[in-house]
């Protein structure tokens, strides 16, 4: 029997750059500053909470929207930090990572022919999910090298066909963050429309130099029309646990849950117990910004002696660097060569663009121990 012929629903999608570069890093024993994940351990307490939950028998399905006490604690946390109260019963859902929350939110509202505005460069999961839903992505490029939003361009992209606008602050891969003025500009654009917002805020606590995270939850007019996505993986140094959550007003969350319950039904139970325990200690996340700021500063200080030109990093755990003083190779060729010849893996920023825009910039992840960063910088200074 021959395999049936299938026409791919995602003909342009291959293996993600994160997988490719991490595999190359293993193959060449390179220091992996490519894929975004910490190389240091998570808190012992988090492991104890998860272990205790498993030993206490919390090993069966959690409620579909997530463990109630966890949703209650998230509601209280959001109100304290951003001044908006989300109802834990109807407006908060725990998901298997931020990625699953993005999938459910986009799938819940985007239909055939609907237009979705995205800011380029973007996190790689947005476009495939829009396309699976039959939607059409309209891209607005962040202005290089500051990577700021071109609001005039955004206004020209908005039409009666616009269903959704996706934003991400702090931003992967550029490390830029939205100001309150950016939020107000967006608010003015969507006022009196039916446009929905999807705000990817997985790096909410990783923000530097005294800046405050401008969650859409702080802006009532925006919050009324927004899904907001978060990730425990980023906040608690456990990207492999894959737990996140979504906040949205009830009418949006109702539609979100219709998808969520058939993507996964519910999220890992012991992990939810563990995060509920961790949320009793707000210091963990209120100090995360300074924890990562030290790493950023350490890495930047060491690289000051290199031929890389470092762009500002205002948030997230990513540092962009221009390498045009070193080479005129494409960023992908450069990243692959540096991995193979020098032993440091990075991500070429062109992969975050649909048209592979190559500004000769690579992304380093500094969610690493001081020793890893020191060793990597020593090598990078020789290039
Ligand atoms: N959005 C952005 C911008 C990210 O960088 C990531 C992490 N790769 C995610 C969403 C997904 O988060 P999670 O690992 O919890 O699925
Ligand atoms: N968010 C991480 C990054 O940008 C990786 C996520 C993934 O591997 N899909 O590096």
Topology:
Blueprint: H1 17-27, E1 31-32, H2 44-55, H3 68-82, E2 92-95, H4 97-109, E3 115-120, H5 126-132, E4 136-141, H6 151-157, E5 162-168, H7 180-190, E6 196-200, H8 220-223, E7 226-231, H9 232-235, E8 244-247, H10 250-263, H11 269-278, H12 283-286, H13 288-303, E9 309-310, E10 318-322, H14 331-342, E11 344-345, E12 347-348, E13 361-365, H15 370-380
Parallel strand pairs: 1-11, 3-4, 3-5, 5-6, 6-7
Antiparallel strand pairs: 2-8, 7-8, 9-10, 10-13, 12-13
Helix pairs in contact: 2-11, 3-11, 4-5, 4-10, 13-15
The protein binds 4'-deoxy-4'-aminopyridoxal-5'-phosphate (PMP) and glutamine.
Description:
- By secondary structure, the protein is an alpha/beta fold.
- It has two domains: 17-42 and 286-380, Aspartate Aminotransferase, domain 1, CATH 3.90.1150; 59-284, Aspartate Aminotransferase, domain 2.
- 39% of the residues lie in helices and 15% in strands.
- The protein has helices at residues 17-27, 44-55, 68-82, 97-109, 126-132, 151-157, 180-190, 220-223, 232-235, 250-263, 269-278, 283-286, 288-303, 331-342, 370-380; strands spanning 31-32, 92-95, 115-120, 136-141, 162-168, 196-200, 226-231, 244-247, 309-310, 318-322, 344-345, 347-348, 361-365.
- It has a seven-stranded mixed sheet, with helices on both faces.
- Strand 6, helix 8 and strand 7 (226-231) form a beta-alpha-beta unit.
- 47% of the residues are buried.
- 4'-deoxy-4'-aminopyridoxal-5'-phosphate binds at residues 36, 97-99, 123, 168, 172, 200, 202, 231, 233, 239, 242, 244.
